[in-house]
Amino acid sequence: xxxxxxxxxxxxxxxxxxxxxxxxxxxxxxxxxxxxxxxxxxxxxxxxxxxxxxxxxxxxxxxxxxxxxxxxxxxxxxxxxxxxxxxxxxxxxxxxxxxxxxxxxxxxxxxxxxxxxxxxxxxxxxxxxxxxxxxxxxxxxxxxxxxxxxxxx
Length: 153
What we know:
The protein is an alpha+beta fold. 17% of the residues lie in helices and 53% in strands.
């Protein structure tokens, strides 16, 4: 009898786990996609954001910083009010094997996204924006305007 009860309980746990995984996958479905481009002097930054069903954001960003730095990577995060907080996980063309991760804050103002300048701190290998320090959205380099999304071939 005890063996049967344990067997039934493990089946219920597996069903709950499968339901949780299905709900997570459903929440990660893309609802809409927006593309942006920022140009500052000789720098160009292309940003593609996928708005997910669960309210979070994923996508990718390519930063071409003059004279030769190219950073390519993925973004993931979510909006808090009118500010999008993301983690940018990227590789630089010069150091292909090394992966970097930077936090970023983008203010949505009208039809623009403005990349803010904030104080960053690294603790135990994780870099984050310091919470009690304000983020400057006025004296900035990159202001993203809506752009056509490039199709991947």
